[in-house]
Amino acid sequence: MLTVIKSINDLGICTVVDLHRVTGISRPAIHRMVDSLCSFGYTERVSGKSAIRLTSQILSLSAGYKPESRLAEKAAPVLAELQKRLRWPLTFATPEDDVMVVQETTRDSNPFVFDSGRTGLHLPMTTTAMGCAYLSACTTEDREAVLERHRRRSGPDDVRGDGVAAARYRIAQAAEKGYALRSGGEPERTSTIAVPVVVYSTAVGALCTTFPTSAVVLGDALNNYVPLLQESARAIAASFEN
């Protein structure tokens, strides 16, 4: 069916004979598929019903495909390569409103899994390493919009430890160092190092690794993991820019 749809898209207005010639599919089979496509409104018959063409309804098939999906496609092979060099689970997430959404993770293939960082998981933006890494590379306008919404929800900074002042400090540290660090917090007894992913000078997400705090000396982790994460972040960006 997809082969027929693609062929109609390539040919424009065409006949069953045209489709048979380019696809090699038998004419009876093409007739059945065309009838089905017409019944669902994806194609219509023209020129006295001897030819067919796609309708605007075909666009609905791509409605569920988002830019984030393309980012995940590009990130997946990069994470797979990085996993060969870095033993701990890796995660790539993108922003959605005021949260980071996990788009790709190596947890399914990594034996060292100690949290639930599954694909589709929503993470707070201002209190996580991934969120702060992303915000550190954002435009001032986008970052301030997120912080203002966070301020409205969290109340005065002296009431909650995750207020705007604390968030600004974490983001500033990430901007200065080129990475964001979470040591402690959720999940317990773990640390996370995250770096921003920037495509064409625009922050599009963040890449991180999470590991047991007791398993690696923090200084060693920073020295060893940050360059690898930054290299992989650049590889994800290059896959778009090239």
Automatic annotation (TrEMBL):
Q: Which GO terms describe its molecular function?
A: DNA binding; DNA-binding transcription factor activity
Instruction: Look up the domain of life of the source.
Output: Bacteria
A single GO BP term for this record reads: negative regulation of DNA-templated transcription
Keywords in alphabetical order: Transcription, Transcription regulation
Transmembrane ranges, per UniProt, are none
Its recorded name reads IclR-ED domain-containing protein
Tell whether Cell inner membrane is among the UniProt keywords. no
Q: Which residues form the IclR-ED domain?
A: 57-242
Q: Which Pfam families match?
A: IclR_C
